Description:
By secondary structure, this protein is of the alpha/beta class. It contains 13 helices and 11 strands.
Amino acid sequence: MISMRYLKSFIHSITQPSVTIVIAAYRRVDVLNRTLQSIYRQTYKNWRVLIVADHCDSNFFKGLDLSHPNVNAINLPVRIGHQYGPNSVGIELADSEYIAFLNHDDYWLEDHLEIALKSLKKGKSNLFLGKSAFCHHKNQLEACMARKRVVFSETNFPEMYWRAFIGPNWLFEPASSWVVSTKLAKKVGYWNAPDKISFTPVMDWLQRCFINQASVSFSTEVTCLKFNLHIPTPKSVNSYDGDGLCADQVKFIMGMGKDEIRKILAEDLQSYSEFSLTNREHMLTQEDESQVKQNFEGYVSGQMQLGNRVNATEALRNNAINTIKQRTGEDFDSFIAVEELLQLLSEIEQ
């Protein structure tokens, strides 16, 4: 077990990195090693990586590639079950100018950090919400047979960040596409557990960013790929630890450069436009969107409350527990508070 004291020593041993990349990880070491390769290929090189493993066993660390001098890992002493814990540990430890979140099964195109940092500096902003493309498990088997690769059916719409007021998460997800100034992240504070809030942890943390004067910048280029291929179903051959459906075709995509990937994204998104977020039933009319945006601005300025969402907290807790059960087969009944987790970490000796 690596102690907090050791990690702080590791962080200070790297000369003035601009970005701390916080990776929330649980099992799936082969997928994580692939994700690490997308970091090593970044055109922007002034970074460090902190992998926060969610109470993984020794086999995870035996297979983990920690050969790069700017990469290290910490293993949480208890299982958290959600990215709120690892991301909060990363916020606590980071002392760089920026923090970039990256989940263990997401993938960056090689200019992700370069585009993010240029956008932040050009806009004099403190929060970058990147553009991501989603590869969902639905219809992938047929697509893989026809095209010999996985397909991407939609992108997020980070410029609609104010929809964090009501969702859906996919509009500004994944957090893997975000880069935030460390000053803002520490001011906002830790991510909240899903049984303590009435919005999802992603929505809740983003809302608090804007309460704390976040200024946002964006990119029109996709720089992050989100693979939703591992979600198991009853009697499925799909498993949490593997790449899920079409594993070989995923690896084929990973062998491409950014220009080639963006070319196939353009082809896919045109073919699968009927699955786009903008065409789903939960999207609002233009008039309703205008009202939601106005409400969000009132909320951020302190002139409006979010209203009574007491029942939402229980629903979020149950949804988080069910999601963990679906993905890994684990039974959860509660989520540890971040402050308690950090206390446990501080007591661990190297």
